[in-house]
Amino acid sequence: MTNDQILRQKQDNEIDLSDAPEWTESMMNRAKVIWPEDRPAKQQLTIRLDPDIVAHFREEGRGYQTRINAVLRAYVDGQKTTG
């Protein structure tokens, strides 16, 4: 398992950042978001979900929309292999 895969399985508060330098304003001004070429930008939309579903994902903290997307991605990918 790669370091990237290990980090993706952890919650933000489980990652030790003690040796990482703090971001300066200068660094933030130079920062760019670079999307992998094989992954298009996400599409923003409005979706209605049951309240308990939203609560479940929000309980885990920040990144709940990304986790919802990951569950949907796994479902779609599973359909490709079984359907």
Q: Could you please describe the fold and organization of this structure?
A:
This protein is mostly helical. The chain is 48% helix and 0% strand. α3 (51-59) packs across α4 (64-82).
In short:
This protein has 83 residues and is mainly α. It has helices at residues 3-8, 25-30, 51-59, 64-82.
The share of residues in extended strands comes to under 5%
Rg, nearest Å: 17 Å
Instruction: Note the overall shape.
Output: extended
**How would you spell out the order of helices and strands?**
HHHH
Average pLDDT works out at 85
Give a quick account of the main beta sheet: strands, pairing sense, barrel closure: none
Helix fraction by DSSP (H/I, runs of at least 4): 40-55%
Count of helical regions: 4
- What are the low-pLDDT stretches, counting only 5+ consecutive residues below 50? none
Structural class comes to mainly alpha
Which key terms come to mind for this protein?
83 residues, 4 helices, extended
